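Figure 6 in text form: structure in, sequence out.
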């Protein structure tokens, strides 16, 4: 996987930008608020169909303009492709792949990318939603069927939650829940089965990466946690089958009525990370937590390669300054001559080997080599 060129028009603070890339690593330096992250954001949107910074597409358009364009040329298995996204303040965005208009959900998986930003350093100690999102995006980029099932599940979950609120307010009957329970149970079984299978690979890879980073001094273990499962089979039903989830949903109805939300399902699940038997989220030091995140990100790269046959594009958004010199060196050693990487930084002095990358300077939306 390789991005060969990027073309931006009226995107964020870029009026017109055309860049081609001839080295495996590109470093974009400059002061804050000059457009470094905007450049990486454009690549990320082309990979997953949405921004990691906003859910409002209009915010991506230069404030003086009515529309914006992103165009990315990339090689996938040595075949040339072009992804294009056109934004407008008045209509929904238009996505195309190789000049053919497609739905946004069909974009994911064509250009694969892994983003590592300072916010990701809270992946270990942050809320469970962050870890679920990490796993969902990782699997979605290698399995379109998983992504479609995830979208369907989230829609059904929203409908069930809306209905629960109506039932609580006595504006609907409890018997109306049955079709949503059936749909959620079926979706939950599929999602959790795929998550568990993927996590088995990711956990093994992350453990190997973690041992390399720590000089084999620490062992990282990642397990899949379902807070509504007590570890016991409640019946002869297969655990985590659609029938099992349906039974759990029915058992939790009174709780769900009272809270107005669905308390059973993969939207409540979490990943637990332990190092040498110690819960990393609760008791890990900041250094241990950052090492855990770095191991997860490196494992994500290897997982996508194992599933798709190619490494994804790596986007490092101002994360180098957040890592100590040892972790920076580990990261550079891993990606050098292996993974196309785009790095943003305010300090070029973080890079001791200037010949390993192409360096660009960004100032007020202008990019100079």
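Output sequence:
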């Amino acid at each position: 996987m390789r991005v060969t060129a990027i073309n931006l028009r009226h995107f964020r603070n870029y009026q017109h930008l055309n860049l081609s890339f001839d080295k495996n690593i590109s470093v974009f330096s400059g002061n804050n608020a000059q457009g470094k992250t905007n450049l990486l954001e454009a690549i990320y949107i082309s990979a997953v169909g949405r921004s990691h910074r906003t859910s409002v597409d209009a915010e991506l358009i230069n404030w003086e303009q009515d529309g914006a364009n992103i165009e990315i040329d990339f090689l996938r298995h040595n075949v040339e492709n072009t992804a294009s996204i056109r934004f407008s303040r008045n209509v929904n965005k238009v996505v195309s792949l190789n000049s053919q208009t497609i739905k946004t959900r069909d974009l994911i998986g064509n250009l694969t990318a892994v983003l590592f930003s300072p916010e990701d350093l809270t992946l270990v100690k942050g809320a469970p939603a962050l870890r679920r999102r990490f796993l969902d995006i990782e699997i979605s980029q290698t399995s379109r069927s998983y992504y479609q099932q995830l979208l369907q599940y989230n829609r059904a979950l929203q409908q069930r939650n809306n209905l629960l609120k109506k039932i609580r307010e006595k504006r609907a009957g409890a018997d109306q829940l049955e079709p949503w329970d059936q749909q959620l149970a079926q979706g939950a079984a599929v999602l959790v089965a795929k998550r568990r299978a993927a996590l088995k690979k990711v956990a093994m890879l992350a453990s190997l990466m973690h041992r390399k980073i720590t000089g084999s001094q620490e062992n990282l273990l990642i397990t899949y946690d379902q807070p509504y499962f007590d570890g016991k089979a409640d019946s002869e039903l297969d655990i985590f089958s659609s029938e099992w989830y349906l039974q759990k949903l029915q058992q939790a109805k009174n709780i769900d009525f009272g809270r107005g939300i669905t308390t059973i399902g993969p939207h409540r699940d979490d990943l637990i990370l332990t190092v040498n038997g110690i819960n990393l989220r609760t008791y890990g030091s900041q250094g241990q937590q950052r090492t855990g995140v770095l191991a997860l990100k490196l494992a994500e790269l290897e997982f996508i390669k194992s599933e798709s046959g190619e490494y994804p594009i790596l986007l490092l958004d101002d994360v180098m300054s957040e890592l100590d010199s040892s972790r920076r060196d580990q990261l550079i050693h891993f990606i050098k001559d292996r993974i196309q990487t785009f790095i943003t930084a305010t300090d070029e002095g973080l890079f001791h080997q200037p010949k390993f990358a192409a360096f660009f300077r960004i100032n007020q939306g202008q990019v100079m080599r």
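Caption detail: The chain is about 40% helix and 25% strand.
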